[in-house]
């Protein structure tokens, strides 16, 4: 954890703190789930109350999100797990089966049954580590991306595969309309299309349709916004919005890590930024916005306006690894610094004098910052309300980088970390009343509720 | 002034126990209080003795004396256990005392007392040739248990007679007795059952060892005899061959006779061996049998004991088995004339019982001595508290060390609540048996051949039966006269011995049809029935008030069927039901939880009843009116607390009837003014209490060298710890002005870290504060005295109080870094700079808990004070947790907010909690919930609850 603070004290102090009283933070109870012996990197939801965790120890654990009970510990991989995906069968004939697919550095992929905790099938014919898995529910196939792209059916028959693409392999996959997928391969974005094979009844062919080379650096994140749009982010802080149908660039934000207003000023500062500080680690979106975890900061990009409307340049002390949008205009981020923060996207009342991103330019000195900010404010005010990200709570528990988290709604929040732990954060009030309910149910069960005189 | 104090204390004690004067009649000992009273009166009426002979009954009876210091009247300084034997060579003789210290018995004449206690053995155990039987029969007699008083010596004793087998002894038996001797008659009387249970264990241990030793001895003897027979046979044959005269020489006839007698002896001994081996299987059938089970030393038994304990199938004939384990033995020739002379050395007790079992017995006796030493009030209070505490299975884990409570199956724990109906019937029987009845019918004495009861008394008793049972209850004085008139002289006796009661384990009796008239008393403790029978009353002051008949317990059909090895293991199961284990007991300090639960609390508990019905613990009866209190003229209550019987309480201590408001909340009970008002009351009475308690305890401490407090070996350390913790806590609250927020942190479940360089100082503080830490479960306290590595989140789940090392090393920096990182979960008490960083506290509970101006001086007193306040908190938490409508909507449409409102109103107005006190009760309630809903066997991962509240830095 910890992270580097290259900018010194000035920047460090710019990290917003929420204070000890967090009235809007519902998480007042936690459960520490122990089961892993190494970094836990992945959490994936299985159904309403179960999730799986996986990481560098090669173990997959299934958990009950309500009680924190460990349901299964799945052993099968000999190396660290590199990708995990849920795969629910929607067969009308049989009961709904909850499966998960895991890929590991041991070059195998295993399908697990979450109900029985058993290994359903194992594929070990890979030439390289599978780095990403995507399930195309609609086609009832799943894709594995490594040095090539393979298409599999439910029975784990290899339907088709591409030629060898690159040694580095596919880092991300996203499903696009019209049986297409976008694969991030280094700096390139390759669009593949799955077509019916002519000779076989249940066969697919995979064809490369387009290669997009607009990114200057490796593409780290890839997210589908809706049927029309998808977004990619790269290591040097480029964010490109693509048309999902014709794969054209709709918009791009190249230097928004610096300043959305004056992207070209102060090149020397741009140089001083280490790539880590600007890389787009993770993207998430709703219909309206794309939320980007860029370096230590969080940026909210309005798709319609094609600009960043709010940001926290230093949301954390260290790189933000994962962000998620909650239904209630809240945003959760986790970071290498071991903390999880809850943000709320708020609309600021029209206060023209105030700069858009508060404390945004602190490091450049007050005078200029204000000037720029005023300019920014003026520009913004013309057609849009001003937004800002308000820190409403933080969760301190992990002693090392928080890799990922899973939001379970009412049940709480599961976070996984390099400290080998998973923490289940819960709403203490809700848990307390649930326990009361259980208590009175148990009393009734025991027949203790009748008053005997 | 002093008197007032006494009264306050005793009122409190008695009131808290929910005992009224009516309940003081003991079901255990079957004679009325009348005898005792009469006995005292007699003493008072005695003509004045010369000064040197007079034994002051109550030497400190004057103004301001401690009414419980009765020990002073006796010639010995403290209670002790005496083992005596009725030696066939020298008569009654004391063998050993426990504690084995000459100072203990002082000027007390052990020889004299041995004579006394051995002279009242009613075991009636006879071995020999009973009429109609060809061979000597071993008589497996029950131990007899009598209570005996010697007013001259100022000694009262529980006397436990037992016989051990010895092949060399007359009739193969050696009568022994173990006696618990105390100057306090009440102790003996009231602890009779407990004493009986404990001594039975010791006795069973001795007898078990003895049976093994006896069997070994018999086997050796048989080999000797066999060898002798062979030798004799050979000699006879040789003589026959050598003798061709056609007639037998006297020598030959002598040899033949000798051979015949050896043959007979072999048969007899074989029979004896078969009998002794048949023992366990016969006993197995008896529900009342309590086999000795070495509990603590089971491992030692396996390793160190011997092969006899090796498991063996009862069905498998054990002859070979036994022989294989016996070291090779060279048979000796037995001379025709047995060497029975008086200068032969009888076996010592140790030899009789096998060293291992002898040591075990001594351990048990030491355990008994430690358990029952000290004042009877102390014992009783402790027992009552323990019994009550055991019932509070929902809350008792919070602040009590429940590991000292008996581990019982869960369904039994709730027995008092769930089986109310059943208890009622039990209680009826109980009430009947409360009235002392002297009922004996002939049938109670098994008419087997081996048994030779004292018939004379029986018959007499029988004829008197109806009259007696009446008169004992109604007109004790008359009754005694009547006894004197009719029964006197039936036993020749000494001057001042009284046998006050004996006990008979009565399963055998209740089984037989002829016992229909016997009162069956299902005592919850041991489930034993008492049969009282008046035996004799002597010329002078010997009174044998009851005894138990002995039985011969070998059914004929059983004797030969299992000739296998003596195996004591298979019937261990009986033990549990009978409650005769080494009952792990709570040590007194803890058990005083009830002390300050005053009337208000018991009333408050009634509300819980409304919500949860019979799940609630059995409630105490309200305090008896002052007028009913048996106070003597000077206002000193002289009656110690009475033993607590669960079944009794279950019946009587139900819910105090509140007419007109059945099942509803009584307005005044939950009135906050009432509560706060009574809190004031309880506060003031508390102060008095603590005064008087410390007074009493200091008074007691003046003679503590004589009578050390009773303690159980397991918790002696705990007791000491508690004292020290109390003392340290007192010091802490006096020294640190910010003690309140620190204690609040602990009570509200926020981990408190005591940070310091000096390990001793940190540990001391941790010890002091540990008494405020609620337990999360029945496991160990969540307290870690000393940690040197950086803390993690998991630690705060596990531990609520941590002593942490502060170092200047780089590692120390990490430690501090972790502290600041997790500061939201922590309160930090810096022992070096005397600062505290923790949330603000503005409540009132802690102020009462830790008043730095408190007058309490002693650590143990303060500990009890803390326990009492914490108990109040527990009861509030209990109420809060189990009131249905505080947590769930009354109707389906009721919005959540109104439930929340109701909840807060209850906490603030009804429970009278101010500010942060609410959080304490909420936290305790959360623990109660978790504890209750937790699946048994599943520990579950502990959860960490916390608040986002600002912390403040306190400095001295």
Automatic annotation (TrEMBL), chain A:
Residue ranges, annotated region (Disordered): 1-22
PROSITE patterns: WD_REPEATS_1 (PS00678), WD_REPEATS_2 (PS50082), WD_REPEATS_REGION (PS50294)
Protein purpose: Non-catalytic component of the C9orf72-SMCR8 complex, a complex that has guanine nucleotide exchange factor (GEF) activity and regulates autophagy. The C9orf72-SMCR8 complex promotes the exchange of GDP to GTP, converting inactive GDP-bound RAB8A and RAB39B into their active GTP-bound form, thereby promoting autophagosome maturation. As part of the C9orf72-SMCR8 complex, stimulates RAB8A and RAB11A GTPase activity in vitro, however WDR42 is shown not be an essential complex component for this function.
Main location: cytoplasm
Keywords, ordered alphabetically: Autophagy, Cytoplasm, Repeat, WD repeat
Quaternary organization: Component of the C9orf72-SMCR8 complex, at least composed of C9orf72, SMCR8 and WDR41. The complex is formed of two protomers, each individually consisting of one molecule each of C9orf72, SMCR8 and WDR41. The protomers homodimerize via an interaction between C9orf72 (via C-terminus) and SMCR8 (via N-terminus). Within each protomer SMCR8 (via DENN domain) acts as a bridging protein between WDR41 (via C-terminus and N-terminus) and C9orf72 (via C-terminus). The C9orf72-SMCR8 complex associates with the ULK1/ATG1 kinase complex.
Single GO biological process annotation from the record: autophagy
Native source species: Manacus vitellinus (golden-collared manakin)
Keyword Transcription tagged: no
Gene3D superfamilies recorded: YVTN repeat-like/Quinoprotein amine dehydrogenase
Protein name: WD repeat-containing protein 41
Localization in the cell: Cytoplasm
InterPro entries: WD40/YVTN_repeat-like_dom_sf, WD40_PAC1, WD40_repeat_CS, WD40_repeat_dom_sf, WD40_rpt, WDR41
């Amino acid at each position: 954890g910890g992270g580097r603070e290259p900018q010194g004290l000035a920047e460090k102090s710019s990290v917003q703190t929420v204070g000890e009283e967090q009235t809007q933070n519902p998480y007042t109870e936690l459960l520490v789930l122990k089961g892993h012996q190494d970094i836990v990197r992945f959490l994936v939801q299985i159904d309403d109350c179960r999730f799986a965790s996986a990481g560098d120890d090669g173990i997959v654990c299934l958990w009950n999100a309500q009680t924190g009970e460990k349901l299964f510990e799945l052993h099968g991989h000999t190396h660290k797990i590199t990708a995990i995906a849920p795969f629910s069968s929607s067969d009308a004939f049989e009961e709904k089966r909850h499966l998960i697919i895991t890929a590991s550095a041991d070059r195998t992929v295993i399908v697990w049954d979450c109900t029985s905790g058993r290994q359903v099938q194992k594929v070990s014919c890979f030439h390289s580590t599978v780095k990403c898995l995507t399930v195309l529910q609609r086609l009832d196939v799943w894709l594995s991306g490594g040095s090539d792209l393979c298409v599999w059916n439910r029975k784990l028959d290899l339907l088709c595969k591409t030629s060898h693409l690159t040694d580095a392999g596919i880092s991300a996959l996203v499903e696009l309309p019209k049986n297409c997928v976008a694969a991030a391969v280094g700096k390139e974005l390759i669009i593949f299309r799955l077509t019916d094979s002519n000779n076989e009844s249940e066969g697919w062919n995979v064809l490369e349709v387009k290669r997009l080379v607009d990114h200057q650096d490796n593409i780290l994140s890839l997210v589908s916004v809706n049927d029309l749009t998808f977004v990619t982010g790269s290591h040097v802080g480029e964010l490109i919005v693509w048309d999902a149908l014709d794969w054209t660039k709709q918009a791009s934000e190249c230097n928004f890590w610096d300043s959305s207003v004056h992207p070209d000023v102060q090149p020397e500062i741009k140089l001083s930024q280490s790539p880590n500080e600007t890389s787009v680690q993770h993207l998430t979106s709703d219909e309206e916005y794309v939320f980007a975890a860029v370096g230590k900061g969080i940026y909210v990009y309005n798709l319609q306006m094609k600009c960043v409307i709010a940001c926290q340049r230093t949301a954390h002390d260290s790189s933000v690894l994962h962000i998620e949008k909650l239904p209630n205009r809240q945003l959760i981020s986790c970071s290498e610094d071991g903390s999880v923060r809850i943000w709320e996207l708020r609309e600021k009342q029209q206060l023209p004098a105030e700069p858009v991103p508060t404390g945004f330019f602190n490091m450049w000195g007050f005078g200029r910052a204000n000037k720029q900010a005023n300019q920014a404010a003026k520009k913004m005010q013309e057609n849009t309300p001003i937004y800002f990200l308000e820190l409403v709570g933080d969760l301190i528990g992990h002693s090392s980088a928080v890799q990922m988290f899973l939001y379970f709604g009412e049940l709480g929040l599961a976070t996984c970390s390099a400290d080998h732990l998973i923490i289940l954060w819960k709403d203490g009030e809700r848990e307390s009343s649930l326990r009361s309910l259980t208590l009175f149910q148990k009393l009734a069960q025991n027949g203790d509720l009748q008053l005997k005189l | 002034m002093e008197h007032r104090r006494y009264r306050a204390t005793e009122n409190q004690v008695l009131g808290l126990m929910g005992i009224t004067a009516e309940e003081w009649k003991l079901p255990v000992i079957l004679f009325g209080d009348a005898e005792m009273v009469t006995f005292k009166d007699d003493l008072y009426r005695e003509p004045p003795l010369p000064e040197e002979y007079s034994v002051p009954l109550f030497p400190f009876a004057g103004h301001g004396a401690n009414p419980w210091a009765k020990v002073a009247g006796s010639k010995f300084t403290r209670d002790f256990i005496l083992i005596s034997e009725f030696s066939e060579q020298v008569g009654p003789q004391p063998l050993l005392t426990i504690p084995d210290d000459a100072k203990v018995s002082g000027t007390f004449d052990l020889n004299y007392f041995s004579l006394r206690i051995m002279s009242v053995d009613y075991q009636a155990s006879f071995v020999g040739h009973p009429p109609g039987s060809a061979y000597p029969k071993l008589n497996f007699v029950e131990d007899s248990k009598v209570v005996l008083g010697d007013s001259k010596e100022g000694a009262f004793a529980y006397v436990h007679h037992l016989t051990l087998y010895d092949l060399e002894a007359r009739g193969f038996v050696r009568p022994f007795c173990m006696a618990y001797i105390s100057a306090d008659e009440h102790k003996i009387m009231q602890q009779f059952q407990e004493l009986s249970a404990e001594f039975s264990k010791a006795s069973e241990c001795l007898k078990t060892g003895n049976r093994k030793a006896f069997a070994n001895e018999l086997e050796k003897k048989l080999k000797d005899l066999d060898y002798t027979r062979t030798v004799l046979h050979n000699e006879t044959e040789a003589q026959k061959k050598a003798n061709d005269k056609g007639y037998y020489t006297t020598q030959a006839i002598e040899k033949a006779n000798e051979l015949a007698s050896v043959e007979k002896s072999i048969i007899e001994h074989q029979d004896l061996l078969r009998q002794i081996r048949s023992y366990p299987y016969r006993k197995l059938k008896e529900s009342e049998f309590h086999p000795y089970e070495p509990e603590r030393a089971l491992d030692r038994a396996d390793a160190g004991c011997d092969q006899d304990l090796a498991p063996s199938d009862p069905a498998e004939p054990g002859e070979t088995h036994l022989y294989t384990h016996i070291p090779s033995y060279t048979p000796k020739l037995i001379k025709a004339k047995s060497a029975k002379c008086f200068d032969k050395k009888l076996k010592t007790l140790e030899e009789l019982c096998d060293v291992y079992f002898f040591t075990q017995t001594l351990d048990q006796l030491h355990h008994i001595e430690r358990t029952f030493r000290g004042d009877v009030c102390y014992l009783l209070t402790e027992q009552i508290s323990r019994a009550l505490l055991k019932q509070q299975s929902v809350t008792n884990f919070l602040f009590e060390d429940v590991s000292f409570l008996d581990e019982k199956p869960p369904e039994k724990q709730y027995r008092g609540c769930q089986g109310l109906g059943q208890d009622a019937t039990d209680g009826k029987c109980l009430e009947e048996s409360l009235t002392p009845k002297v009922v004996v019918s002939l049938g109670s004495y098994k008419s087997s051949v081996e048994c030779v009861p004292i018939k004379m008394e029986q018959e007499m008793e029988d004829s008197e039966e109806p009259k007696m049972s009446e008169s004992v209850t109604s007109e004790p004085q008359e009754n005694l006269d009547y006894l004197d008139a009719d029964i006197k002289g039936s036993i020749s006796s000494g001057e001042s011995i009284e046998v006050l009661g004996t006990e008979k384990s009565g399963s055998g009796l209740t089984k037989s049809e002829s016992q229909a008239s016997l009162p069956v008393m299902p005592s919850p403790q041991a489930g034993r029935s008492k049969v009282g029978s008046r035996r004799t009353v002597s010329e002078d002051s010997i009174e044998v008030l009851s005894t138990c008949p002995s039985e011969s317990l070998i059914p004929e059909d059983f004797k030969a069927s299992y000739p296998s090895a003596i195996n004591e293991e298979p019937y261990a199961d009986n033990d549990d039901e009978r409650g005769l284990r080494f009952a792990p007991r709570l040590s007194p300090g803890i058990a005083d939880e009830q002390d300050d639960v005053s009337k208000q609390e018991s009333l408050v508990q009634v509300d819980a009843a409304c919500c949860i019905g019979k799940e609630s613990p059995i409630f105490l009866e309200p305090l008896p009116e002052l007028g009913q209190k048996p106070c003597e003229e000077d206002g000193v209550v002289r009656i110690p607390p009475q033993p607590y019987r669960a079944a009794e309480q279950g019946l009587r201590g139900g819910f105090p009837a509140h007419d007109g408001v059945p099942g509803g909340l009584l307005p005044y009970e939950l009135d906050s003014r009432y509560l706060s008002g009574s809190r004031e009351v309880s506060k003031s009475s508390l102060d008095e209490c603590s005064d008087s308690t410390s007074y009493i305890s200091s008074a007691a401490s003046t003679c503590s060298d004589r009578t050390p407090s009773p303690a159980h070996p397991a918790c002696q350390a705990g007791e000491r710890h508690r004292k020290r913790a109390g003392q340290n806590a007192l010091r802490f609250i006096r020294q640190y002005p910010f003690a309140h927020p620190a204690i609040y942190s602990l009570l509200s479940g926020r981990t408190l870290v005591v940070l310091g360089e000096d390990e001793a100082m940190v540990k001391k503080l941790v010890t002091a504060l540990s008494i405020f830490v609620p337990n999360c479960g029945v496991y160990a306290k969540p307290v870690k005295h000393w940690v040197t590595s950086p803390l993690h989140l998991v630690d705060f789940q596990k531990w609520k109080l941590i002593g942490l090392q502060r170092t200047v090393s780089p590692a120390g920096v990490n430690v501090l870094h972790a502290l600041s990182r997790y500061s939201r979960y922590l309160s930090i008490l810096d022992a070096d700079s005397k600062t505290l960083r923790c949330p603000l506290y503005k409540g009132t509970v802690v102020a009462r808990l830790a008043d730095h101006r408190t007058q309490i001086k002693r650590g143990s007193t303060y500990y009890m004070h803390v326990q009492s306040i914490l108990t109040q908190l527990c009861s509030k938490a209990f109420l809060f947790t189990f009131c249905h409508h505080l947590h769930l909507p009354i109707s389906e449409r009721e919005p959540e907010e109104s439930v929340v409102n109701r909840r807060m109103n209850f906490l603030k107005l009804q429970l009278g909690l101010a500010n942060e006190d609410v959080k304490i009760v909420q936290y305790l309630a959360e623990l109660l919930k978790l504890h209750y809903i937790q699946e048994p066997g599943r520990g579950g991962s502990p959860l960490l609850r916390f608040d986002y509240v600002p912390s403040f830095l306190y400095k001295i």
